[in-house]
Amino acid sequence: MSFMGEIYIYTRPALWEYCIQIIFSGLGGYFCYRVNRLLTEVKHGIWYGLLLGVACWIATNMIMLVGDWDNLPLTLLAFMAANLFCCGGSLWNRIGAGLIVCTEAFAFSTLIDTFLDMTLITGHLIRFSFWFFLWLLMKRRMTLGNQRLGDETWKVISLFMVLPMSMVICIVLLGRRFDRATLDSFVLLVLAVSSLFILMQMIPTLIAKERLMEEKRLYTINQTYYKNLERQQTEIRILRHDMIHHLTLLGTLPEKERQAYIEQLTGKLNDEQMIHYCDHPVVNGVLSVKSSVIRSCNIRFTVGVKISHILALEDVELCTLVGNSLDNAIEACEKVSVENRLIHFTMRAEKGMLVMRVENKVAEETESKNWKEGNLPQTTKKTSEGHGYGLRSIEQIIEKYDGQMELSITDGIFTLFLYLPLPDLTD
After folding, report:
1. Is 411 exposed, middle or buried (0-12, 13-18, 19+ CB in 10 A)?
2. Longest C-alpha distance within the chain, in Å?
3. Secondary structure (3-state) at 171
4. Is residue 405 predicted with pLDDT exceeding 80?
5. 320-357 residue pLDDT tens
6. Distances (CA, A) of 285 to 50, 280, 378
7. End-to-end Cα, the chain, rounded Å
8. What pLDDT score was predicted for residue 344?
């Protein structure tokens, strides 16, 4: 198709041209979808992915001309609605991701549709090439993985993208149709397309900031956890010290009062007794405290620990590894029928390696709904705020010592297996 003065000449494309157009337009929409996936997660379900894929295809291949009021407003509203509906994550995450994709799609389409004379095949080829190379670049620079940006950061990104999106809207809606645009419009559209490349330079800094904030948050949580455990052990030591006074008093009481005092004292000690699992005081303390909780939940608990009283790890880190893994196991077992509840804990330190394995029963719905292979399991607590840090705390310690962690579910048994090299105490 082409313009010659006031005459519009249309040449019917051949079948092979239709096929090539469909292929290139489909590939452009697919890589636009992949770009969107790098920024936010799509909800589980084939229909969510299919609907978002169609929205990306429309946004990528919609013709955008300066002065055209027909396409941009409806396409923008439709894509943002599809992105909000089909994607997970926070509201600001979905808004930010939608603005990024829309800005790139509309700015680039307006550039090539307004300023370049080309066939439909060439136009779809250029669109596909743009999204393909954009996806390659973003995959290398912006893959967020398990490190997700917080709401405040996505709010900043969304506000940053409002300006280039507004420029595109103003250029398209306020320009004169079929006026071959001016140099300032061309420059502004190029700047709008370039906004994502500027943002990509900011993303590593934003991720590093998020990581530091999360590490600080995890450290605070682990310190509090360790202090609470230390307080419990101190109370137990005080109680054991007071036993001398209790025994002295028992020798002076009459038989009837003595028996009542013994029953009262026995009930008080039942839940506070220290069990000897190993020689390491912190590991032994955590297992003793958690074993009382496990017993109260009617969970069978088997332990096999072989470690010395000295390990080249900080007490807070050991407390985190053992305590958080058992907390997660207890939470999972509470969803299982009483007769099937089981936790098996093993830990050993030898030949310069610390190895820990925790196995526990899980409910069938946990295996089918809350587990995604290769990712950390999601919390099953009714309120997620303040939760979900257990495995991340463990993962952080493993990364610090260049260790490894494996998570798996087989026949209703969840297994957490980790090992990490122990630092040399002589260093």
Report:
1. exposed
2. 118
3. helix
4. yes
5. 888 888 888 888 888 888 888 999 999 988 888 889 99
6. 52, 8, 28
7. 75
8. 93
Higher pLDDT, 376 or 360: 360
Separation CA 61–CA 124 (nearest Å): 7
> Could you tell me which of 370, 371, 361 has the C-alpha nearest to residue 341?
361
Beta carbons within 10 angstroms of residue 131's beta carbon: 25
Residue 339 DSSP one-character state: G
Q: Is 307 exposed, middle or buried (0-12, 13-18, 19+ CB in 10 A)?
A: buried
Summarised one tens digit per residue, pLDDT across range 38-54 is: 888 888 888 988 999 99
- In angstroms, the CA 27 to CA 311 distance is 55
Rounded to an integer, what distance in angstroms lies between the CA atom of residue 392 and that of residue 214? 10
Distance CA 64, CA 100 (A): 17
Strand partners, 354: 349, 420
Q: Are 329 and 342 in contact (CB under 8 A)?
A: no
Cα–Cα dist 40/37, whole Å? 5
Residue with tokens 């997700």: 148
SS3 42: strand
Q: What is the mean pLDDT of residues 87-97?
A: 86
pTM exceeding the 0.70 threshold for the entire prediction: no
308 CB-near residues (< 8 Å, 6+ apart): 279, 280, 349
Q: What is the pLDDT of residue 387?
A: 33
Provide the token pair at 299.
């969970």
Give me the chain's average pLDDT, please: 76
Predicted confidence at residue 370, as pLDDT, reads: 45
